[in-house]
Design goal:
The complex is a heterotetramer of chains A (about 425), B (about 550), C (about 400) and D (about 250). By secondary structure, chain A is α/β, with parallel strands linked by helices. Chain A has twelve helices and 19 strands. A two-stranded antiparallel sheet of chain C has the order 1-4. A two-stranded antiparallel sheet of chain C has the order 2-3. The chains are: A alpha/beta (about 425), B alpha+beta (about 550), C mainly alpha (about 400), D alpha/beta (about 250).
Chain lengths: ~425, ~550, ~400, ~250
């Protein structure tokens, strides 16, 4: 055997291994659903749960007889917290496995990475996590919160109920906190808060030494005005942050912290007794008092065979997205992307907080905003619930996006229509 | 050192005493004395947050110490109203229902099913008001600890209404520390009252002498509402406190740096053995730290289930467990993989990288990908002041802990016969083996020792960081930086390297921010290595390059 | 002189490899474009862009092999050069979007608009010009490598110390590119590209050309690497790897030799990154992650370092395996990957190609080399130990 | 006796009052040492006497703390690095034979040839007939013509020593520093090496560091004995080996 033929053989083997699944075309009696969540790497900590939720929802739906008389089949892949791999896997799910829709992604980077793929191959992605907004794709549904469905109501609550006059905007240094904080700063200043009463602080990913920052917050808070921290600190860094807060004796009564990325799952890794009273703003808490929620929690615990498993907001978002898709497919009578994109707008499905959520023409959904205080058992005590709010994809508080709207209904079919110029951006001038 | 005793225990103990002595407590000459508090409580059932705040004020004004348990229950979220008659009770979970007691008398009011009662909402502002109210009501408690808590509570939520109570309490107080605290509390409360300007001026002096960050906050907060003639006094007081604080701030920064350094030291010290002494580029080192943290978690789980009383000892128990577990894993790795790779340091990088992937995924499969809760024993919670600095207990213990590990390791390396064998083998394998030292086992146990120490570090790091399968990954790069910066193979280098990187980081952080600070530290390490290509503590001479 | 340099490179194996690569480079796009989708010979676009990605990784691995396999510099920061090349290409693609961004701003990319940039940062100028951007693809990584290498090699930083500071370099860049203030799109990076030289990046034709370009650049770099390795310079390079001080005492400037190789290698990595970006559609700071650079080392080791074909095969095999396992066994693929690394280091220390090549050489040579290796290893261990005191 | 300046002018290599210390240990202590053109010199001394450190200093590997090191009375070697010094014409053979094991004997010699050593010169180098002849000549000298295509890794210990000497010859140095050339050689090889070195010394200066007294006697040249970083005695082998200090410090042990 010559070297040449060996080399050829090796290359061929590599091609084969990557295309081995190629032949597995969808059997006619099932509808395939792609699940695109990291099961390894840094994001596995958050995303694995969502994979489990999707498997549960699909199993439940199959018990009810599936969709359009066909069973659903989940295709789970692991993009391994690696952004280019997300794009590769999305492509694989759509063109090789021929899935009808994909549920997945957590970080904005992963969504940004797959967005062109979904638009190119014309498929549907349901994205279940709160994000910074400033995006509306024809092929993506954003069932998590936009900044106006989380951040602004939370700040309103603190200003009104706790009389907060001085604000620390602390976040991890990436796009979601940066954008949210820009929106919040513009919003607060529009409410008459002086710039000197706003402190913005950024930390690297996975920051674990919070001593200096907590003591800076303490200093900033000792100016005689009621101070609060608005935290957009990314998941992993929260545990050490809260531990340091607790140890430095910052109690919620003195300087409350309201967080947008801390839910039941994050608290499960934490002794919450020193944190009682700190807040979080979400569209769902496990402690919501509603029958549909009790049912969901029961199913979840049974599905995971773990009585201690908690539920959280992105799970609700996945739940809403999945049910909206099922309803839209049934209304359209087909899983064809274009038909579903048309039929899903205006679909209303129950959410887990006892109301309903509607898919809006901007591909965001309506949801109530809940403010909760952390309790000693790791759950949230809901102190405020608003009426349902429509997710605002283009923030009114950023100068360049305030004139933009999104409406994917015909005839406009535009994700970034500029009401000032009357033109749909992105299609050239 | 009050903060060392769990706040809640102390509080409930005090409350119990309050209850027993409440009839003996003097009542105060105030307008609302004699008002029946029970209807006030019942009004809470329908009140929103603002109304509830007023009601608490009225309750506090009764001066009735019997109300303390109910207020405490309220702040803990244990106050309920019965849906049938809107009457308010303290509720304690008893099986699937609540055990109800009267908020004023404490008499039992039977049981209620969970859906028959509704919890009365509570938020931070209400908790603050309640804290102040309870402070006022317990100022004259017979228990010294409770009085100190009460004075603290009033100090933190000053209100002019508590002024007279404070003055009465001060006149009766015999304990020096409690009295001092009360005097401070009085001064603070006085600023928001309608007392004379002279009295306020004196109060400002008192607060100034009290000092600290909080004092600045109090003065700045009060200055807006004070008489303009006092502005000069306030500014002078603030300036004087701040100048005193400046030096403490530097000290505080050094402390933060040392404490960050001690964390780096902990993370790196195991690597100083496996990488520094043995020359293995051990990418699985972080996973050893992670295994140590998970051992702590398992130990705590077992203790929670079987012997809750031992919880404060859980870390002490976890230490040997973590050492043995990770040491054993290290032994297996050395025997199974690394022993075939001696003399090929760069290849150990690949193999241990593979090991680290496998260990991470194993833990993920066993425990799930999410964070696990590792509790802080009470002696590691809270903080205590040293002058103008705040020292948190967990950081202090971690510094002490990492230094003692360092010393212990140094002793093992220099004094024990195992340490002697270890050095002999790493210096001249052939010579050592011809002298009868069983080199393979010395290698194996050296690696196990390094791994075990990484495991112990994991026990400590579980106290300040996430316990998740990713724990190790977040320390591995920093650990290598520390060892290389300090000088490979030199334990002292690791110590000095860790501490100096920690302090450097903390001095950069306030001026350039945490992100740029970290980048700058990395760049400085790169530049430093150019200057001293073998780290801080490198041997010179031809031996190194032989 | 130049012709001799190139001619020397075209030794049998290399010619064969280049032939295969170019064959794939033409055949795959042809099968993709020219056969109907239901044909048995059809290669779906999905598979083509996947394989295009592997070719970029193969080029990156080849670049690393040049410094590691031949010069003995274990760089744990080659991902940084790859990412910088990718960013240079990404910046060009961003500028090509023009007014088609969501905000319709003709100059500023979208992320700058919503982060309130008023004007284009200075370092973004010129990237709308393809030639300039392509020059930057090799100049930026090359310059970083030159500055870094200039200091490090002059100061004689070597061995693990060098490895660790290259890791520090890529880690520092990771943190820096994460910052929104850097003007590179923060963690989201650069994405949503529209077209390249006027052709839509999503069109099958463009993908086919990009695929061919990847195969072509890999072939050219393979020839260049082969020419370098087979010249007298290449022999000096191996000398540096095996006995650095001997090379020095023969009067060679080791720092210049290393610097030249390091820079050439960084430029190759930059080209790989630039071809990678339009094919996967995104570049973000994740590419700077130290773990990525370590993975490149692993591909090279699996294929066989110190051989030119080895890293190419290693990169394709490991990534092919990764694609397959993350789809087929998402829960346990890390066990497989981890196991592979351990198995390769234990049982195929010379990698796949290295082991095969050794089969051709005399058995005696193998044994002698192993002994020599052992001797060197002991010397290294002694050095370590003495330093440890 | 010559005056100092005369000695300097005539010298090929001139060391005066050279001291260096590592972490407090004085490896060289005011060492002074002169080699004249065309001289073959042997150096002996106990372990740790500073022999290798002295070579390190001459070849630029180590910088002295104090002292003067001159080559041909004009070039200050303390300001130059290894590559410069090698190009000036000082070759060095290590204690442990150091050849390029993954290259053939021929390639080893080709690399060592005294030709332009720049990056681009080596990239575009092609073997000229003169270079080929020169390599073959050296192969002849070190008696390895028949093994020229063998990988250096496959040579015996003694052959590696010779190959290294051959590489030094290819470098065409004016001064050759040879560190323990006969360690590990058979008696026959040792004798042949002595012949080879004497042959080489006809055209250039050679400094040999060696423990093997028999070998030194065979060379029959001026001997310098070092101890504790300075010169203990210098002269003929008989003179030195009868020096009481030398006996106490070195031979007597």
């Amino acid at each position: 055997m010559t070297f040449k033929s060996k080399l050829g053989g090796a290359l061929l083997a590599a091609v084969m291994s990557t295309t081995a699944l190629q032949g597995a075309f969808a059997a006619d009696d099932t509808i395939k659903i792609g699940v695109l969540h990291s099961l390894s790497g840094t994001m596995a900590i958050s995303e694995t749960t969502l994979k489990d939720v999707m498997l549960m929802l699909i199993a439940e739906q199959n018990k009810k007889g599936g969709v359009l008389g066909k069973k659903l089949e989940a295709v789970v892949v692991d993009p391994a917290s690696d952004w280019p791999l997300f794009a590769e896997k999305a492509r694989q799910l759509i063109s090789k496995d021929k899935v009808a829709a994909v549920f997945g992604c957590w970080t904005s980077s992963s969504r940004k990475s797959v967005l062109p793929v979904f638009e190119e191959l014309n498929s549907i992605l349901f994205y279940p996590v709160q994000y910074e907004g400033e995006e509306s794709s024809r092929n993506i549904f954003y069932t998590g919160a936009a900044p106006n469905q989380q951040a602004i109501p939370a700040v309103d609550y603190l200003a009104k109920e706790e009389g907060v006059k001085r604000w620390v905007l602390a976040g991890t240094d990436y796009v979601y906190p940066q954008t949210t904080n820009k929106i919040l700063k513009a919003y607060l200043m529009s409410k008459g808060v002086a710039e000197s009463d706003i402190m913005i602080n950024y930390t690297p990913f996975g920051h674990s030494d919070w001593q200096t920052i907590v003591s800076d917050i303490k200093k900033f808070g000792s100016a005689g005005k009621k101070t609060a921290v608005v935290s957009t600190i990314n998941g992993d860094a929260n545990v050490p942050f809260y531990k340091e807060l607790g140890n430095q004796g910052i109690k919620a009564e003195d300087i409350p912290v309201v967080a947008f990325s801390v839910g039941e799952e994050e608290l499960a890794g934490l002794d919450t007794k020193p944190l009682v009273g700190h807040l979080a703003a979400w569209n769902y808490f496990q402690s919501v008092d509603a029958d549909v929620n009790a049912e969901f929690i029961k199913e979840w615990k049974a599905f995971t065979k773990n009585d201690k498993r908690v539920t959280n907001d992105p799970m609700e978002a996945a739940y809403i997205g999945f049910n909206a898709w099922v309803k839209a497919v049934e209304a359209a009578g087909t899983t064809n992307t274009d038909a579903v994109l048309d039929s899903i707008i205006g679909v209303s499905v129950p959410n887990l907080s006892g109301g309903t959520s509607t898919v809006m023409p901007n591909h965001h959904i309506t949801k109530p905003v809940l403010i909760g205080e952390i309790q000693a058992d790791g759950q949230f005590d809901i102190v405020q619930e608003t009426a349902p709010v429509v997710g605002d994809e283009w923030s009114d508080y950023l100068p360049d996006s305030k004139n933009l709207i999104s409406d994917w209904r015909k005839p406009m079919s535009c994700g970034n229509f500029n009401v000032a110029s009357g033109k749909c951006g992105g299609k050239g001038s | 050192m009050t903060s060392k005793v769990p706040f809640r225990v102390l509080q409930s103990l005090g409350l119990l005493l309050c209850l027993m002595f409440s009839f003996a407590a003097p009542s105060h000459a105030q307008s609302s004395v004699g008002t029946d508090p029970k209807p006030l409580f019942d009004q809470l059932a329908k009140a929103d947050f603002a109304e509830a705040e007023k009601l608490i004020g009225q309750l506090a004004a009764t001066g009735d110490a019997r109300l303390v348990p109910a207020l405490n229950a309220f702040s803990e979220g244990d106050l309920y109203f019965r849906k049938s008659d809107s009457l308010v009770f303290i509720g304690k979970v008893a099986g699937s229902s609540y055990e109800l007691t009267d908020p004023v008398t404490g008499a039992s009011a039977g049981q209620a099913a969970k859906n028959a009662v509704t919890k009365i909402k509570i938020n931070n502002s209400l908790r603050r008001v309640i804290r102040s109210a309870m402070g006022g009501l317990t100022l004259m408690s017979p228990d010294r600890g409770v009085r100190l808590q009460a004075a603290d509570a009033v100090l933190r939520s000053p209100s002019a209404e508590n002024l007279e109570l404070l003055e009465t309490a001060i006149s009766k107080e015999t304990d020096g520390e409690v009295k001092a605290r009360m005097v401070e509390a009085r001064a603070v409360s006085l600023l928001s009252s309608d007392r004379s300007i002279d009295e306020k001026r004196a109060a400002i002096q008192t607060i100034k002498n009290y000092g600290g960050r909080n004092a600045i906050g109090i003065l700045m907060g009060a200055s807006a509402s004070l008489d303009p003639s006092l502005k000069g006094d306030v500014d002078a007081a603030i300036a004087s406190i701040e100048s005193g604080q400046r030096l403490w701030d530097v000290g505080q920064n050094v402390w933060y740096g040392v404490s960050l350094g001690s964390v780096l030291l902990l993370a790196a010290i195991g690597l100083a053995i496996t990488f520094g002494v043995m020359g293995i580029i051990n990418m699985a080192h972080g996973e050893m730290v992670m295994l140590g943290a998970y051992s702590t978690f398992v130990v705590q789980q077992v203790i929670r289930d079987h012997a809750p009383g031992l919880f404060d000892w859980s870390l002490a128990i976890a230490l040997p467990v973590a050492f043995l577990v990770t040491g054993a894993v290290g032994l297996v790795i050395e025997r199974g993989v690394i022993r075939f790779l001696y003399g090929r340091p760069l290849e150990t990088l690949l193999a241990t990288w593979g090991v680290s992937l496998i260990l991470q995924q194993t833990i993920r499969s066993l425990f799930g990908p999410t964070n696990q809760e590792v509790g802080n024993p009470s002696w590691m919670s809270g903080s205590f002041p040293v002058g103008g600095m705040t020292i948190t207990w967990n950081r202090m213990w971690i510094i002490a802990f990492s230094l003692s590990i360092f010393v212990a390791l140094l002793v093992v390396m220099k004094k024990s016969s195992f340490g002697l064998n270890m050095r002999a083998v790493t210096q001249n394998r052939r010579m050592a083996s011809s002298m009868g030292i069983r080199t393979p086992w010395v290698d194996a146990f050296t690696f196990a020792l390094g791994s075990g120490i990484a495991g112990i570090a994991g026990v400590a790091l579980s106290q300040i960081d996430n316990v998740s399968p990713n724990l190790g990954q977040s320390y591995i790069i920093d650990s290598f930086m520390v060892v290389v910066f300090g000088g490979v193979g030199n334990l002292w280098g690791t110590l000095v390297g860790a501490l100096s990187l920690g302090v450097l980081n903390k001095f950069l952080e306030p001026s350039v921010g945490a992100v740029l600070g970290k980048i700058l530290v990395l760049v400085l390490i790169i530049l430093f290595i150019q200057k001293r290509p073998r780290g801080l503590f490198a041997l010179k001479g031809r031996a190194v390059e032989a | 002189m130049i012709s001799g340099f190139v001619f020397r490179a075209l030794e049998g194996r290399i010619v064969a490899a280049v032939g295969i690569l170019l064959g794939i480079g033409i055949l795959v796009p042809a099968l993709n474009l020219l056969t109907p989708p239901d044909s048995a010979l059809h290669i779906p676009t999905y598979a083509m862009s996947l394989f295009g990605k592997y070719l970029c990784y193969a080029l990156l691995a080849l670049a690393l092999d040049l410094v590691w396999g031949y010069c003995g510099i274990l760089s744990l920061g080659h991902g940084a050069f790859f990412a910088l090349g990718g960013y240079a290409m990404g910046m060009y693609l961003m500028r090509q979007i023009g007014p088609r961004g969501v905000y319709g701003n003709p100059i500023l990319p979208d992320f700058m608009v919503f982060l309130n940039y008023k004007e284009l940062p200075w370092f973004w100028h010129g990237f709308d010009w393809f030639v300039f951007a392509m020059a930057m693809v090799i100049v930026v990584p090359g310059l970083l490598a030159f500055i870094f290498g200039w200091f490090a090699f002059r100061s004689r930083v070597n061995g693990v110390y060098l490895s660790i500071i290259t890791q520090a370099m890529t880690y520092a860049l990771l943190l820096a590119f994460f910052r929104n203030d850097m003007g590179f799109g923060g963690n989201n990076g650069l994405t949503d590209f529209k077209d390249i030289l006027g052709f839509s990046v999503q069109a099958d034709g463009t993908r086919a050309v990009l695929f061919f370009m990847s195969a072509l650049m890999l072939s050219l770099c393979l020839i260049l690497a082969s020419a370098i390795v087979r010249s007298k310079f290449g022999k000096v390079l191996v000398g540096v790897r095996d006995a650095e001080s001997r090379v020095r005492f023969l009067g060679f400037r080791v720092e210049n030799i290393k610097l030249f190789t390091f820079v050439v290698s960084a430029m190759m990595a930059g080209i790989a990154g630039a071809l990678f970006v339009p094919q996967v559609g995104i570049i973000n700071p994740g590419e700077f992650a130290p773990a990525n650079s370590i993975e490149v080392v692993v591909w090279t080791a699996v294929g066989g370092r110190g051989t030119l074909i080895g890293p190419i095969i290693g990169a394709i095999l490991v990534n092919g395996g990764k694609s397959f396992f993350t789809g087929a066994f998402p829960e346990i693929w890390l066990f497989a990957l981890g196991g592979l690394f351990i198995a390769v280091t234990l049982f195929l220390p010379k990698g796949i190609v290295g082991t095969i090549q050794h089969g051709f050489k005399a058995r005696k040579a193998l044994k002698a080399a192993a002994d020599a290796e052992k001797g060197r290893g002991d010397a290294a261990a002694v050095a370590q130990a003495q330093a440890a005191e | 006796m010559n005056t100092i300046s005369e000695t300097r002018q005539k010298s090929l290599l001139y060391l005066e009052n050279v001291s260096v210390s590592f972490d407090g240990f004085k490896a060289l202590n005011s060492l002074s040492f002169v080699v004249e053109p065309g001289e073959l010199r042997a150096i002996i001394g106990p372990n740790g006497a500073g022999k290798t450190t002295m070579m390190d200093i001459i070849t630029g590997k180590t910088r002295p703390d104090t002292g003067t090191v001159l080559f041909e009375d004009a070039i200050d070697l303390t300001k130059k690095d290894e590559a410069d010094i090698a190009q000036l014409g000082i070759g060095r053979k290590f204690q442990k034979p150091t050849v390029f094991e993954s290259h053939t004997v021929w390639d080893n010699l080709e690399l060592a040839l005294n030709r332009s050593r720049g990056v681009f010169a080596t990239l575009f180098y092609t073997l000229s007939p003169e270079d080929k002849a020169r390599i073959e000549e050296i192969l002849e000298t070190i008696r390895m013509t028949h093994r020229k295509n063998e990988y250096a890794a496959n040579l015996s210990h003694g052959q590696k020593q010779w190959l290294e000497i051959g590489m030094l010859l290819a470098q065409e140095p004016k001064l050759l520093l040879v560190d323990e050339p006969v360690a590990g050689m058979t008696d026959a090889e040792t004798a042949e090496t002595a012949v080879l070195l004497k042959e080489i010394a006809k055209t250039r200066s050679v400094v040999v560091v060696e423990h093997d007294m028999g070998f030194i006697r065979e060379l029959g040249v001026k001997v310098t004995c070092l101890a504790e970083g300075s010169v203990l005695a210098e002269g003929s082998i008989d003179f030195v080996s009868n020096d009481p200090k030398v006996i106490e410090n070195y031979l007597g042990r």
